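This section describes the prediction task in plain terms. A model, or a person checking by hand, is given the sequence of a single protein chain and must write out its three-dimensional structure as a string of tokens. No templates, partner chains or ligands are provided. The sample shown here is typical of the held-out split.
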Amino acid sequence: MFLPLTELQPMGGMPGLDLNEIMGVMAKFMLASVRIGAFFVVAPIFGSATIPVQVRVVMAAMLAIIVMAYTEVPAIESFGELRIIGVLITELLIGISAGMILSIWFSAAVLAGEKIATSAGLGYAAQIDPNSGGQTPVVSQMLSMFMIILFLGMNGHLVVLRTMLESYSYLPIGMMPAWGAFIKGGIGAASSMFLAAGIIMLPIAIIMLLINLAVGVITRSAPQLNLFSFAFPISLLAIFIILYASIDAMSRALKDLGISAMENFQLVMEAMSYG
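The expected answer:
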């Protein structure tokens, strides 16, 4: 049975989505995620090779949504066709710069471990570091993990994430940062890195030097002793005892290093807004 055409009622239009509005929101999301995404690529802990890329992408997306909810993200139409490329590059460089500043501070533990391993004759005891891709002494990796554990225990990762989120307020998207502040902060972080590494490794290196001098005197007075079969076991035993005895002092030094890293990171990010 067919109904007459005159009795057919026109169907109402189905509610649709505004494509331009969706594209505008996606463009704002892209602008908000560039800085934090670049930071997750370079920064220690967050940029570790042990964290899957999918996890870092999801974290960056979630933080970008938070940025869009609490700060004003400019519409992509407010920038010119050429300026938007400069804005994306600037946001990318801000995230990379922030991650590099933090990485320099964490490198102090790695540098101290390398010098301790060299002074104790453990330079050959190296394995592949998944983060750097090269061979790193085991002592360096132990101190690096120790540093990460202390940093997480102080909620340093939360402080860093809060600083990155707050940077969207005093350094909004599209604003040119003060790159001189970043350069000055990087130089200061590098000098502090060498100073902190020296403070951590110098006492152990001095003790190992005295032990090696004592072993040299003994082997000089008793030439029949084999230097390698006699000196190496003593040095190996001594470094293990020294590392065990210095855990408390080393933890305080690494904790102070983590606090200094957080404070310097906050100061550099705020100083970059005075551009």
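For orientation: Residues 179-221 form the longest helix (43 residues).
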